[in-house]
Amino acid sequence: MTALTVSMIVRDAQEFLPACLESVRPLKPEIVIADTGSTDRTMDIAREFGARLIQIPWRNDFAEARNRALAEATGDWILSLDADEQLDGTTAGRIPALLENKSAAGFQVTIRNYVNSVNERIWDEAPKPNDSLLASAAGYPAFVEHENIRLFRRSPETRFVGRVHESVGPRIRELHGTLGRASFYIHHFGFVIDAAAKAKKNDVYRKMGRQKLQEFPKDWQAHFELGLLELEQYRNLPDARTLFSHACELNPSAGVAWFFLGLTIFRMGDYQDALNFLRQADQAGHKTAVVAETRGDAHYSLGEFNEARASYEAALKRQDGGAGVLAKLCLATIRSGKAEKGLARLRSALTVTPQIAELHEGLILGLVFLNRLEEAAEAADEKLRCVEGLLPADYLRSASLWAQLRNWQRSSRALELGLQEHPGSTPLTHALDEIFHASTAQAR
Question: CA triplet 292, 222, 216: central angle to 5 degrees?
Fold first, then answer.
């Protein structure tokens, strides 16, 4: 019997599988892979790495497929991975001590989900800057963490539960097993796949989520999981609202469900109702930065700028950093009648981090609100100088502000800079023609 079995289910995973299997090689595990119908080189790659390969039919049930793979394992412990995941070089030195634990039935493992932008959220978690622990992930700016039980003791009674978002957690808890916290990471690349692959994956998860809901209509988490998909991937606000409402009814202590219900209703434009549900999230113990930020957004939308300031301050206290929240706080400060205080705080932040787009945006919007257009135009030009990866709209806005001041030279210069970054941009080209005609007409 081997100490560790790496257990996987795969399908058409030739792009990711080699790196995944190479990353587990230092552990010298047994590798059991259940293939659900690959038509590419996935099975050949598995064999090249010495995996024991079984072929199983796909029945729209992740738990069933994973349990089929589990049935073939012989190790004392199971490490469950997906093909688009990898371990880093520190793992081989950390797992052996966990396998010696005599009391734990399993371990919660931190999973780092890589994203393409520092502003991209997954669920209600803000991303963390990438510390490049894994060399193959160094190209991604940030990751969002969550936990799942991925390392667990093999037992006939320990099985995956749930057609989608499957886990062994429910079974371990039913058996009163002890859970520890692992000292290694799993690195996940499933959120940085191309748009077509992501859309296909979402459609599969949506279908399975609906099936899971039919099977477990009283499971609050089934309602919640499908609600997240409808909200974030399909922008289906009415269905998301219904699903989150049911989740809250089934489990009133689920603060995260109250938050997403409030967020959905906020996006529907019902700001007062959104505030009520966001308070419920806080009362249920879900006191996260994004709850406070969304509460601030609702107050701001209602014109309640002092209340918005207090909420944004709370968000900053709950999570250090947050340039976007600071920009919102300063705008609320300006709108509440304390213009110089808000502007000073923005300018102070920009001296430290001039590359942060949100801070520039807050300063520009604040100055426009105060009708200090020349300062706003200068601030817009400063954003062009300091921030990378700007859109044509950023150059258009700078040009527009200078045009309002009849400063055609600086307006043209902003558009010319934009065309250097975005050659052939139709909006920038048209705007430059308009500036030329306007300046010519004025000269006459």
Answer: 150
End-to-end C-alpha distance for the chain, whole angstroms: 92
Q: Can 4-193 and 194-286 be said to share one CATH topology?
A: no
Cα gap 225→208, rounded to integer Å: 11
Name residue 85's beta-bridge partners.
188
The pTM of the full predicted model, rounded to 2 decimals, is 0.87
Task: Report domain extents, the chain.
Answer: 4-193, 194-286, 305-388, 392-444
With a CB cutoff of 8 Å and minimum separation 6, the contacts of 369 are 331, 334, 335
pLDDT tens string for the chain (444 positions)? Answer: 469 999 999 999 999 999 999 999 999 999 999 999 999 999 999 999 999 999 999 999 999 999 999 999 999 999 999 999 999 999 999 999 999 999 999 999 999 999 998 778 788 887 889 988 999 999 999 999 999 999 999 999 999 999 999 999 999 999 999 999 999 999 999 999 888 989 999 999 999 999 999 999 999 999 999 999 999 999 999 999 999 999 999 999 999 999 999 999 999 999 999 999 999 999 999 999 999 999 999 999 999 999 999 999 999 998 765 789 999 999 999 999 999 999 999 999 999 999 999 999 999 999 999 999 999 999 999 999 999 999 999 999 999 999 999 999 999 999 999 999 999 999 999 999 999 888 888 766
At the topology level, CATH places domain 305-388 in 1.25.40
In DSSP terms, 142 is beta-bridged to 115, 129
**Separation between Cα atoms, residue 70 and residue 158, nearest integer Å:** 9
- Residue 42 near residue 13, CB atoms below 8 Å: yes
41-56 exposure pattern, b = at least 16 Cβ within 10 A, e = fewer:
ebbebbeebebbbeee
| DSSP-assigned letters across all residues of 35-47 | ES---SSHHHHHH
**CATH of segment(s) 4-193:** 3.90.550.10
Is 188 strand, coil or helix?
strand
Close Cβ partners of 356 (under 8 Å, ≥ 6 residues apart): 323, 349, 350, 387
φ, ψ (nearest 5 deg) of residue 86: -145, 160
Alpha-carbon span 170 to 161, nearest angstrom: 7
* Angle ∠(230,232,236) on CA atoms, nearest 5: 40
- Domain 194-286 is of which CATH architecture? Alpha Horseshoe (1.25)
Question: Which 3 state secondary structure label does DSSP give 306?
Answer: helix
The rounded distance, in Å, linking the Cα atoms of 125 and 13 is 28
Q: How far apart are CA 32 and CA 269, in angstroms?
A: 50
